[in-house]
Amino acid sequence: MPLPEPPVLGSSALPAGSFTGCSAVVTGGGTGLGKAIAVEFARLGASVCVASRSAQHLSQGIAAIEDAGGKALAVTCDIRDAQSVKELFDTVEAEWGLPGILVNNAAANFPVPAEDMSPNGFRTVVDIVLNGTFTCSREFGRRHIANGSAASIVNIGASYAWTGGPGFAHSAAAKAGVKNLTETLAVEWGPYGIRVNGLVPGLFPHEDEVEAIRGVPGRHVDDEARCPAGRAGRPRELGWAATFLCSPFASYISGHTLVVDGANWQRRSLTQPAFVPVREQMGRGAFSLEA
Ligand code: NAP
């Protein structure tokens, strides 16, 4: 029997209006899991700003937030660029005042064996996932410290932060940095009333999944049978976790990374299954210096 399905979309774990009068910035909030998180904040009364690069993604995010009855703002922002991030927070502050919540969700990823990964590919992913998370957190944190206001940050991570991520050397290293950064900032900024937590999704298929991930051989083949939970995660389950972490009911939780994956990352076999090298898993031929 699989783990039970969660309550239906539109249910909330927190009291209605929990975030009324509060605003939140969700980076990458126009697609996939970021959009699900943005919607849940909106449903609970927050005004939500979606920040990313593509106009299409931004309008998707706005539509989803407004459909949930929320107030939405879209700001074009590349989180790799400190000036762009400054302008993001200037815009939100001018519109709604200083946002009380930051969800560092934006990321980029593509699978490739490390020996085939270009230095530029590695740098780009680290720039978005780790450096972007720092740049956004820094801008947000400095404004709250100067203002003397309490705030909450949630950094979206991945379980290969602990285990390493064969086929994802760039993203796994960056997410390990994000987990570590979460712990450092929680301690440094606790005295200012700023909580910093991590939230790690397990297998969460969604309609916006990029081709590079969707195309991984075996991806989404019989997901249910491949998880101890007997099912994949439902994006709304992450929305509930993120809103809980930012709520007053989590006011003594900081520096923690919450894994929402039905115990998938803890799985081990009684016997060692045959090892398949990453190149082979990805259907790549023999390595060549010329390729
Ligand atoms: P996704 O749909 O690919 O969304 C990534 C978002 O990041 C996009 O909206 C993109 O928007 C934005 N983004 C990328 N580069 C950016 C930049 N330089 N500046 C600003 N925004 C940028 O990803 P997802 O699957 O929803 O994943 C969301 C989070 O969960 C990520 O942190 C991911 O690592 C994590 N996660 C996901 C899974 C899963 O099963 N899906 C599992 C583990 C962890 P633009 O293109 O408009 O910039």
Describe this structure in words.
- The protein is α/β, with parallel strands linked by helices.
- The protein has a single domain (23-281), classed as Rossmann fold (3-Layer(aba) Sandwich), CATH 3.40.50.
- It contains nine helices and seven strands, in the order E-H-E-H-E-H-E-H-E-H-H-E-H-H-E-H.
- The chain has helices at 32-43, 55-67, 82-96, 119-147, 160-163, 169-189, 211-214, 235-246, 278-281; strands at residues 23-27, 47-52, 71-76, 101-104, 151-156, 194-201, 257-260.
- It has a seven-stranded parallel β-sheet with strand order 3-2-1-4-5-6-7, sandwiched between helices.
- It is globular.
Key features?
single chain, 291 residues, Rossmann fold, globular
Name the CATH class: Alpha Beta
**In whole angstroms, how far apart are the ends?**
47 Å
What profile does the largest beta sheet have? Answer: 7 strands, parallel
Mean pLDDT: 96
Query: Any idea what the CATH superfamily is called?
Result: NAD(P)-binding Rossmann-like Domain
What's the overall geometry? globular
Order of helices and strands: EHEHEHEHEHHEHHEH
- Could you say how many structural domains there are in total? 1
What is the fold-level CATH name, i.e. the topology?
Rossmann fold
Share in β-strands? 5-15%
> What's the gyration radius in Å?
19 Å
Q: What ligands can be seen in this structure?
A: NADP nicotinamide-adenine-dinucleotide phosphate
Strand order of the largest sheet: 3-2-1-4-5-6-7
Q: Which CATH architecture would you pick?
A: 3-Layer(aba) Sandwich
